[in-house]
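User: quick one, fold this
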Amino acid sequence: MSLFENEHTSEKRSLEAMIQKRLGRRELLGGGLGLAASGLLGGFITNCSQSDATKPTPGIPPSPRLTAELRDTLPLLGFTAIAPILDQSFDRVMVPKGYRAEAFYSWGDALVVGAKQALADAKDSAADQMLQAGQSHDGMIFFAWPNDPSRALLVINHEDIESASLHPRGQTRDLAGLRPLAEVEKELAAIGVSVLEIQRNKNGLWERVSASRMNRRITATTPMRLSGPAAGHPLMATEADPFAQTVLGTMNNCAAGRTPWGTYLTCEENFNKYFANRDEADLKSRREQSRYGISSKSEEGWDSVMERFDATLKTERPHGAYVNEVNRFGWVVEIDPFDPQSLPKKRTALGRFAHENVGTLLAEDGRMAFYMGDDSRGEYIYKFMPQDAFKTQSKLPAEDLLDEGTLAVAVFHENGTGEWVDLVHGRNGLDRSKGFMDQAEVLVNTRSAADLVGATPMDRPEWITIHPTNHDIYVSLTNNSKRGNGEAQQALNAANPRANNIYGHIIRISETNADPHSRTFRWEFYLQAGDPLHSDPLQRGTINGDAFGSPDGLWFDKLGRLWIQTDFDDADPAYTSHIGLNMLLASDPSTREVKRFLVGPKGCEITGIASDAELKTLWVNVQHPTLSYPSSDGRSRPRSTTVMITKEDGGMIGT
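Assistant:
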């Protein structure tokens, strides 16, 4: 998830009519069942009283059965909101009074059996890093252990490299601009996914299992299988993989999702930064590169020492050498967390773009939809509808359900309705006359296909989450400083009406008849984020409660409480005066009230969220802190960290 941009335009436009038109205040059902979360390790943590950092944490008693009656009696926002933190030297995690937060799993922690803890000077090798926690913790999912409530798996994405911390002296290059191979190899090992087993201790608290055979790292060098319509296609073939069946690695794994059959979906986002096509004329002619932000010079310089990241056409080599390697990234990857020997699969039927997360809607009859956002300014919202329904008694292996189905893209209309337009070869103009020879070309060039059918450009669509009982779909539109700047792709539209949208907004979608396969829907603004004290009325937002901007992570817990995570540049003047550092908030969908629950250390993004089945433990990720968190000693290298949050009285989170 890229940080909030710091650009401003002078164009202004009144939003009153448009916002009021779409801010219908219809009642929503509360309650429902959700997913779960995980745990943490040491570190400096703070609550509002700042007096109980050394208090022992009590054991967690068993939860009563969550009936509909009990759910109705539990408050969704039953905690005291914390104040914003404006202090640019703050280097801890703040939670409400009565809660505790502990660092649970930080970059460099030993994970795989035989691993060692990372060295303080970052002189660990790539081989060491391959067995340790990666960097830039992001999306994560809690997987309950079958038939054993005391065990679970926590699966965590590692989105990006934090090179200033990863290497003793940060990234280096020689006089010719070449990167040291050892540094690049360590960077390849620092991104991807962690799978870790956790268990309850004698006090009922979750802890990591250091000797588990289930613990593993998946990195940018892990073999993966290509699956679905684009597997085996010429656009996916390289000199090293002429049959387009196997690819090495996954990268820039942003957020995640889970399938009804219990597998993990990790999303490849900003993969473009690792590749370069040095032939600018050829680059411009390849929409599968130019439309995805590939340039003639890579950001990280991996291509200087590893040829597979050089996307320049070499006509004398089989399959043009590695010109197609970039096409093998930008997919949703399915991982079986309970089978350490299984190969991850890149599910090409779900389209290729800067995937943020996957929100899953499952109907009673087993039909499904998987909702996805393309996290770039002016990009789109998609859903994939598998051809076959999920049946627990089906003879069809559930793992095949993501290979056949229909990908569609959203169009938002001014009257509060919308439609899903199929991205299928032979429909809606996606044919040979427009350069789409088959379905694989549609999927490799998903963005171009969506352009052609007239999808609505959005303000950086990021996380998508589904209400657990009424199945409404919530989408975070993080921000877009280019909206209304005169570019055609950034023109104001009904769903993105605010020029220079530096604070972002959240949209709520209701499928017709709550049908996952519906091609029509209704939509409204859930809220416009902003600073209520801003000098520009258009930037004040419509928040009922605590102010925030740049909503990113969205997640519903089992009670139907909406959690909102933020990702903005906390040094930007738009945030320093009143909003402060990045945070986690909770919202009641029926009233739209918002309360601040957590604030993170300077420089971090708050992202990734999960809970255990009883909602007694909440896990949240602190990504790329810039001071010294979680040591918070003013000296140590900062480490991205998964944080575990519990109530001191052992109660349910948020109540």
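User: anything notable?
Assistant: Residues 1-64 have pLDDT under 50 and may be disordered.
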